[in-house]
Design brief:
It holds the Pfam family SLFN-g3_helicase. The strands form 4 sheets. Strands 3-2-4-5-1-6 form a 6-stranded parallel beta sheet. It is built from 12 helices and 15 strands. Strand 4, helix 6 and strand 5 form a beta-alpha-beta unit.
């Protein structure tokens, strides 16, 4: 199967004119602050899922390292630079990218905790730290993962002259990595900084109106499907999860990279055993821990597993069959969704933290994280997205809206 993640993030992937200009601007920012500043400087790229943040970072880091290692005339020559990402599946892709490029080495890429613990021992400082998926940085101590400080971003800034990050508030998924734009800016505003906002959707061939429907849905509102929901995009609603599975299997046989994904709400424990999602005749196990160097989404055999937010985040799939699990249901007699916190089965998602004490803020944050996770998996399918809802009322409403849409657009 073609490694689509490698292709997507490769520095060989062409950039748009705007993306090239952004890379050039960040390099100018970096050189300026390395030459004139004694305090760290931070550049932040904001953008929703699919807006090209990671490919910009990949090109940026390749150009920085080419200047650092190959271009004797560059102000960046001889600089020491690292690329950090707190997502093991995405880290595998970046390490694989390093192979064909003589200016990129696998040792340039780290999980943030590994980098922080290593550099603290040496007392060194890097010139540039590039951070992908900064919304996944730990914002509290996590002894299980050998992080003993209060905030990974703060620790990285201590050990770098320039820090370049991408951030998406709608991909915050765990309390131990709890971020808001305000919490990020409270750190960034202490230093010379600059930012840019990416808005153009590159991943999905879906219309802007359907993407807007996804956003409204994950904001808790069920609205009619736009008339162009299927223009250049295969969007479907299913009232039978097994039939959806069969359709995804057929897509996978034809074009590859098609998977079933699900929200939380079904039995799931990291104990090495298989835990199944059952919906009528549908029965499939959750994704297994991936010990290989190949990302879960790129392994052919994972067509027989249900992907979670932790294995699909950051990756493109051709077609996705998405199960909206028991954690999300429709409020009777309304077109509103509710989050059922008592049905959450992801025990890692809501670990308590001492700096969050307001019960209202805590509950709102939990509900937002659930909807964030749904938003992320809704935006994996490049060519098509199929939906099935566990909640009978929501399933009926979505199917009725879909049938109305089909009659309206014939």
């Amino acid at each position: 199967m073609e490694n689509s993640a490698l292709k997507k993030l490769s520095p060989l992937k062409p950039l748009t004119t705007d993306q090239k200009q952004l890379v050039a601007n960040i390099i100018d920012f970096t050189i300026s602050h390395l030459q004139t500043r004694h305090t760290p400087a931070i550049y932040t790229i904001y953008g929703d899922a699919g807006t090209g943040k990671s490919v910009v970072l990949s090109h940026l880091f390749q150009q920085i390292q080419a200047a650092a290692r190959l271009d004797h005339s560059s102000p960046l020559y001889g600089s020491k630079n690292v690329f950090l990402v707190n997502h093991p599946e995405v880290l595998k892709v970046y390490k694989e990218i390093a192979g064909p490029f003589k200016e990129l080495l696998k040792k340039d890429y780290y999980r943030p905790t590994s980098f922080i613990n290593q550099i603290e021992k040496t007392g060194e400082q890097v010139d540039v730290a590039v951070i992908d998926e900064a919304h996944l940085l730990l914002s509290k101590a996590d002894h299980y993962n050998n992080f003993y400080h209060d905030n990974q971003l703060i620790e990285i800034i201590k050990h770098a002259k320039v820090v370049i990050i991408v951030f998406d508030q709608y991909q915050v998924l765990r309390m131990k990595a709890f971020w808001t734009p305000e919490r990020l800016q409270a750190i960034v505003n202490q230093y010379p900084h600059q930012s840019t906002y990416l808005t153009h959707q590159f991943r999905m061939t879906a219309s802007d109106e359907l993407l807007s429907w996804f956003n409204q849905f994950t904001a808790g509102e069920i609205t009619p499907f736009p008339n162009n929901s299927r223009d250049h995009y295969d969007f479907r609603i299913y009232d039978n999860a097994e039939l959806m599975r069969q359709a995804i299997f057929r897509r996978n046989q034809k074009v590859g990279l098609s998977r079933i994904l699900s929200t939380s709400g079904y039995p799931s424990t990291l104990d090495g055993g298989k835990h199944y999602i059952v919906e009528g005749q549908f029965k499939m196990p959750w994704d297994q821990y991936n010990f290989t160097s190949t990302p879960w989404a790129e392994i052919p055999e994972t067509i027989h597993e249900v992907g979670s937010i932790y294995t699909c985040q950051g990756f493109d799939l051709n077609y996705t069959g998405i199960i909206i699990g028991p954690i999300i249901s429709q409020i009777p007699n309304t077109n509103q969704l509710q989050v059922n916190l008592d049905r959450v089965t992801d025990t890692e998602m809501f670990k308590r933290r001492d700096d969050l004490t307001n019960p209202v803020e805590i509950e709102q944050s939990k509900r937002q994280m659930i909807m964030n996770a749904l938003n992320v998996i809704l935006k994996r399918g490049v060519r098509g997205t199929y939906l099935y809802a566990h909640d009978p009322l929501l399933r009926t409403t979505l199917n009725q809206n879909y049938q109305t849409f089909l009659r309206r657009t014939r």
